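Q: I'm writing up a methods section and want to include an example of the input and output format. Could you take the sequence below and give the corresponding predicted structure tokens, formatted cleanly so I can copy it straight into the document?
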Amino acid sequence: MAEEKGRRVKKTPVDGIGLIVQKIVTAKKVIFFTGAGISTESGIPDYRSQGGIWDKCTPVYFDEFMTDEQARIRYWRQRLDMEKGLQQAKPNIGHTSIARLHELGCLTAVITQNIDGLHQESGIPSDKIIELHGNTRRVRCMECKSLISWETAMAMIAAGKKAPECACGGYYKPDTISFGQAMPEQETRRAALLSAQSDLFIVVGSTLLVQPAARMPEFARNAGAFLVIINLSETPCDSICHVLIRDKAGKILEEIANGVEKNLT
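A: Here is the clean output for your methods example:
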């Protein structure tokens, strides 16, 4: 055990996994909080990191999108570049391990910063997934709020609509949070409430730098939850967690799921 800022932080991966398994088996409300680090193992780039799309391109802010047609065209061009990394992506062992915990009755909810829809594809019901930054597989009209599929939007672009528009005159945009766009209120409130009600909160693959999503582990810890962080790099919450594991998400989550299944069968 290492002492850090007056709190006990366990950093031994093998012992840490055993403790996480024990906590999952006995916990009443288990929340997973996932970031880009779980999806990079499916071949999806971490767009914010060095060399990512936002390191190469100037992002289109939401107010630009809403007021400038050329900005909307540039936005859609960038989204098509991002889609190249999403088209072939499938859930990896990290996603399916969390889905196994759901099947075992050991998952209350997944709060995710990811927009790729891979948690749903892994088999977790949509009503157990809170998408703080939206989902790129949906496209929403900014005026009437109606939804169309990504495939429908692509057909419109192929037909010459460089920045697709709705029949109502509103602008279609992937149902994700852009730079400068407000976070979804309902999802953010629900995530904060569940975080504060959890007794086990597991962060996977997030640097916990993007607010307000990054406050969820703090809500959980301040309410007395057992806090676990599984991430390759440092996070601002490392000093307040109970178990800290620096390793790839898929490998560790598979070991955890195997341990939980063994304990329950």
